Each structure stands twice: as structure tokens, then as C-alpha cells.
Amino acid sequence: MKKLGLFFILFFIVIAVIYAIFFRETDEFVQKDLYNEIIQRGYIKVGVNVNSKPFGFYDKNGNVAGYDADLATYIAQYLVKNRAGVKFIPVTPSNRLIKASTGEVDIVISTVTITPQREEIISFSIPYDSAGQAFLVKSDSVIKGLQDLSDLTIGVVYGTTAEKNIQRLLPTANIRGFRSYPDAYEALKSDQINAMTSDDTILNHFAINDKSVKLLPRRYSNEPYGIAFKKSNSVRLKEELDYIIKDLQRKNIINRLRKKWGLE
Question: What secondary structure does DSSP assign to 219-246, as a single string?
Fold first, then answer.
């Protein structure tokens, strides 16, 4: 009987220890959850590319403006109940996912295409918008499509899906990389490259505002845009972001932002 009693005592001690460890670790997980960090802080750190009109840029007052900036303010309104509760942090196509994965920013809203490869290292919301890869050329160019670009020089921005896609689409072309969209655009204008390739939503801005360039009609990919954030401890944040995007779409706010920034 004494041995049996000792067994039950030891058994319950082990169960109590396991129970305590489990709930302590669960509580630590909740406390470290990215969503809770944002709520406790009272504002959200958002990575935006400020060299990407009409998505992100500095206005005449030095404030971050554009489609991505507006979307960020709506997200802040939902998350921290304050549309001004946003701290914008400039990112580039080549460092935006690094900044998200290291926690330098909470989320990245920067025309980030959701791909299986990226999903291995970063988390995404559901898509909030989409684009297609296109080509921008000079208005007097005889280039009509891929068949005319096979041995020419094409500009891409480092870190974009266009950079990877063009190597598959035109393996014989001369690919030249740039750090920003304005850099690639200026190279096209000065005849350093024969064409520039990126998402049509980005290239169309140049074509609308400059009649010396034109956007070729065909699209060569489907680019669903998602909000990016680090994979660890972000389950609650993803749930909230997915709900916000669905609600903004349901209320037609996404479409209104598209029209406001000339994406329609």
C-alpha cells in the first residue's frame, strides 16, 4: 500500500510539473505573439517602398503617401483603433522580406507577390490585390512583345519576382538589375536598356505620366499581392489581417483606393 501511495504521489507530481510547463510556455507564446506586441505598443511598424509610385512615395510635405500607405492606415484603424497609429519604415524590394523576418517592421505592404518560395521563409495575409508582369518600352520602339526582346537589354529591379521570371521567359536576353523603379525607368529613358519589366500596376504609372514611354499590352504572370510578416508567433496577426482585408473588400474600400491612385 505504501508503494502504491508513493506511486500515485509521484504520478501527480509529474502531471503537475507537465501542466505547469505547458501553460507557462503557452502563456509566453501568447505574450510574445506579434499581434499582442502591436496592441501593447499602440502603433504598427509598416515597411513601405517609398520609390514606387503610386504605391509608396514621399509627398511634397515629406510624408509617406500612396496606395500602400493608405492601406496601412486602414489596418491601423482596425488593429490599434487609430488611423494615425502607423510608423512607416522605408524598405526596398531587396530588403523588405529581411526586415519583416527580423522584426524591424511588423508588416510589409509593398507590392509583395505571394509565392511558394517566399512562403517558406515569411508569412502572408490573403491577397488584397494583384498584378501581371509587363514590359515598358520607349513610345517609338518597334518592340511588340517577348519575341523581339530575346537578345536585347532588359532592366529589372533587384528582389522582385520580375527578376526571376525574366530569366525564365528570356534566358538569352541581357538582364540588367537596378535598386529602384525610378533608376530602371531613367535607364530606359536614356537608352541604357531596351525595355523595363515589372508589375503592370507599377509600370502603368510611368506610361500615364510620360507619353515618351508605353506599356506593352500582354501580361506574362499573375502576381497576387499579400501583406508580409515574420512566420514565428504571428498566427493571431494573420487571422486579424485576413479579416481586415476581407472586410475592406466587402466595403469596397480596396476598389476606392485603386481608383484614387489610378490603378483602375
Answer: ----EEE--EE-STT-HHHHHHHHHHHH
pTM attached to this predicted model:
0.82
pLDDT tens for 89-111 read: 999 999 999 999 999 999 999 99
Q: Is 196 helix (H, G, I), strand (E, B) or coil?
A: strand
Closest by CA position to 225, among listed 103, 120, 93, 76: 93
The string of DSSP codes covering 62-82 is S-EESHHHHHHHHHHHHHTS-
Tens digit of each residue's pLDDT (9 = 90 or more) over 131-163: 999 999 999 999 999 999 999 999 999 999 999
User: E strands along the chain, which residues?
Assistant: 44-48, 51-52, 56-58, 64-65, 86-90, 107-108, 123-124, 129-131, 133-138, 153-157, 174-178, 195-199, 213-215, 223-225, 228-229
21 pLDDT higher than 70: no
Q: What pLDDT shows up at residue 32?
A: 65
Q: Count CB-CB contacts under 10 A for residue 138.
A: 15
Of 229, 220, 208, nearest to 164 (Cα)?
A: 220
Cell for 176? 540588367
- Grid cell locating 175: 538582364
**What was the pLDDT predicted at 264?**
76
Q: Which candidate, 66, 212, 57, 223, places its Cα nearest to that of 136?
A: 212
Phi-psi category of residue 63: left, alpha or beta, with phi > 0 → left and psi -120 to 50 → alpha: beta
Task: Determine the Cα–Cα distance for residues 197 and 91; give it in Å rounded to an integer.
Answer: 20
Q: To which residue does cell 499581392 refer? A: 225
